[in-house]
Amino acid sequence: MKEINTVNQKSLPERTADAIAAMLHMENYKAGAKLPNEIQMAQRFEVSRSTIRLAERLLADRDILDIQRGAGTFVSHKLGVSDDPLGFSLIYDKQKLARDLLELRIMIEPNAAALAAQNATRRDHELLFTLCDELDAIVRSGKNYIKKDMEFHQAVANCSGNTAVHNLIPYIHQMQALYDSVSGTRRPKETVPEHREIAFAISEHRGIDARNAMEYHLLSIRKRILKDK
Is 0.70 topped by the overall pTM? Predict the structure, then answer.
């Protein structure tokens, strides 16, 4: 009874924020996905546009949404995770932390790739290949490719269909990019074909091959880092 009373005591913007969060989960919105505009959201949830604005601000404060003036409202890449929930910023040895985070990725991401081969949709396949092409173009231009590299790995995590992996992998990547002082030693020419091999295995539903391709890719990164030290 107390729980019901607590729910009923929530303001309209708070209840609307809960409803929007449920929509994001039920309709499997990915990080970076754009939400419908205010008018469409107001019609969907049968509230005013001002209520939608307040609800979206509440979700932005919780790092679930990213409101960009003039562009729209998007699902935050933080996925509701605060900047440092595990206290990584308190760890003194950042180089060791970067290596440890890579080891954690080696433990998790190959199995996530195998799940992606099982659960990814045709649209997911198209996104993976698009990201491979975009990475290739960035590498050829000589620009920094790390952000696009992370987008590919996040997309694989999203394709896995596992909510915990979906939320955890982007956070690990963000932390590693922040602390990885050896990231510049990676070899982009190897990264592009390794990503394509992962994407092909996923698109052809070859779970074991997807796992092996992801493991090879991450172990190669580790090997190149250790070699260049």
Answer: no
